[in-house]
Amino acid sequence: MSSESSPPAPPSPSATLTPDPTWLTALETRRSVPAARLGAPGPTPDELARLLAIAVRVPDHAALSPWRFIVIEGEARAALGARLAGAYRTRNPDMAPDKREKFAGIMSRLFPAPLAVVVVSRPNRETMIPVVEQELSAGAVCLNLLHGAQALGFSGIWVTGWAATDPEAVRLLGAGPGERIAGIVHLGTATEIPPDRPRPDIGALATHWTPPA
Ligand SMILES: Cc1cc2nc3c(=O)[nH]c(=O)nc-3n(C[C@H](O)[C@H](O)[C@H](O)COP(=O)(O)O)c2cc1C
Questions:
Q1: CA 33 – ligand 1 centroid, Å
Q2: I want to staple 81 with a disulfide (CB 3.0 to 4.6 A). Which of 48, 108, 132, 197 is the partner?
Q3: Nearest atom in ligand 1 to 31's CA
Q4: 150 assigned to some structural domain
Q5: 186 and 156 in contact (C-beta within 8 Å)?
Q6: CATH number (domain holding residue 186)
Q7: Torsion of CA 84, 89, 95, 98, to 10 degrees
C-alpha cells in the first residue's frame, strides 16, 4: 500500500457518545465466514485503505506499531498458493504421498476469497514493552480488520495453520526474521452466512473479584 492511498482523517467523535444500536447489533452478531464462501466483490482499493486505517486503530502499548500488512489479491493468490503447495511437498518428504498431495492441494487453494490480509507481528525487542503485549496488539489488529470489514459490508475469517507457522511458508508469505504471522484474514462478500456457533456462557466465565482466602 502506498501512502497516497491513505483515507481522509475521520471526524472527531462528539464529546458525548450515545448507544448505537447498529453498532451493537454488528458486535453481537459477528461471525466468521469460511474463506471458500467469500466471493466477489472484495474491498476496492479505497475500501482497503480505509479498512487498514481502521485495523491499526487498536490499543498499542507505547505506540510501537508492532505489526504490518501484506495484501494478497488478484493473480498473487494463485501464484502464492502454488509456491506454498511446492513448499508443503518439500517440507514433508516422509509423509504418505496421498496425504501430502491432499494438503498440498489445500495450500494451492488457500486464497479463494477476493482478498487476504496477512497481519505480520513485528515486536520491537529493544523496548521494555513485553513481546506478548505487542503480539496481543497484533491480534487486536486482526479482529479490527474483521469488524471494519463487517462495517463496510464484507465478511471474513481469521486463520493461521501450516502456512502461517512453517518457517519456509512464512518466508514465502513475506515475513522476515523476528516476525511472525498473527493471522491471515480472508475478506470478501459472503455467498452464504453460516449459522452461528454456540457462544460461551458468560456466567461461567465472569466473576466479581473477592479477596483471596
Ligand atoms: C489466532 C487464530 C487462528 C485461527 N486459525 C484458524 C484456522 O487456521 N482455521 C480455522 O478454521 N479457524 C481458525 N481460527 C478460528 C476462526 O477465526 C473463527 O474464530 C472460527 O471459525 C469461529 O468463528 P467465529 O469467528 O464466528 O466465532 C483461528 C482463530 C484465531 C484467533
A1: 10
A2: 108
A3: 26
A4: yes
A5: yes
A6: 3.40.109.10
A7: 90
Would you say how long the chain is, in residues?
A: 213
Ligand 1 centroid to residue 159 C-alpha, Å: 5
In order along its 213 residues, the chain shows pLDDT tens digits of: 554 567 777 777 777 889 999 999 999 999 999 999 999 999 999 999 999 999 999 999 999 999 999 999 999 999 999 999 999 999 999 999 999 999 999 999 999 999 999 999 999 999 999 999 999 999 999 999 999 999 999 999 999 999 999 999 999 999 999 999 999 999 999 999 999 999 999 999 999 999 999
Domain count, the chain: 1
131: cell is: 513481546
Site to probe by mutation for ligand 1, drawn from 38, 109, 157 as the one with most ligand atoms within 8 Å of Cβ, is 157
Domain range for residue 165?
33-75+112-192
What number does the ligand 1 atom closest to the CA of 196 have?
26
Ligand 1 center from residue 213 Cα (angstroms): 38
